[in-house]
Amino acid sequence: MKIAVQFIKHQGSGERMVVLPESEFRMLRRTAMAGLSDLADLAGTNSLPKRVLDKIAGGENPVRAIRLMRGLSGRQLAAQAGITPSMLSQIERSGKSASTKTLKAIARVLDAPLHLISPDLPAGAREVLTGTSRPVAWILT
Fold first, then answer.
1. Given 51, 117, 119, 129, which is the most exposed site by the fewest CB atoms within 10 A?
2. CA–CA distance from 118 to each of 11, 41, 43 (Å)?
3. What is the reported pLDDT for 134?
4. Which helix (H) or strand (E) holds 6?
5. If DSSP codes are grouped into helix, strand and coil, which group holds residue 123?
6. Which residues have C-beta within 8 Å of that of residue 126, sequence separation ≥ 6?
7. H or E stretch including 77?
């Protein structure tokens, strides 16, 4: 597929801009958004409400945010995950590292993707970025 584009230079910043027909922009946008949807499906994040993802992005501990959304008490989650309430409290309050086995058990009970509750994954694994370091969804909306 060949896309007809025109390049112009922004007078103020000198940044190179791309101009393309609206129909081709819409097609690119649909394609990009379908790709983001596929990534979300793979990650399992599409099962979590936006308000919970926003809380996590705002700094709330992901285990706590998802636990509260699921309506579980700390004791209930700890019992179902096979850990002590004290250990769960440490994970939620101080971000204490836990074994992969423990994190997998918590993720299973919460029905949440492991990468959302694991502090050991690199930040880049959580966000699809462009060369401008802006999320793709932000650029295309």
1. 51
2. 45, 18, 13
3. 40
4. strand 6-9
5. helix
6. 115, 116
7. helix 74-81
Contact 113, 120 (CB under 8 A): no
Taking Cα atoms as reference points, which of 99, 136, 137 lies closest to residue 118? Answer: 99
What 3-state class would DSSP assign to 99?
coil
Give the mean model confidence (pLDDT) for residues 40-68: 78
Length of the chain: 141
Q: Residue 111 above 60 pLDDT?
A: yes
Mean pLDDT throughout 4-32? 84
Residue type at position 6: Q
Whole-angstrom distance, CA of residue 73 vs CA of residue 50: 21
**pTM for the structure as a whole:** 0.54
**Dihedral sign of CA atoms 61, 65, 70, 75 in order:** positive
- Domain 47-124: which CATH number of 3.30.1360.140, 1.10.260.40, 1.10.3720.10, 3.30.470.20: 1.10.260.40
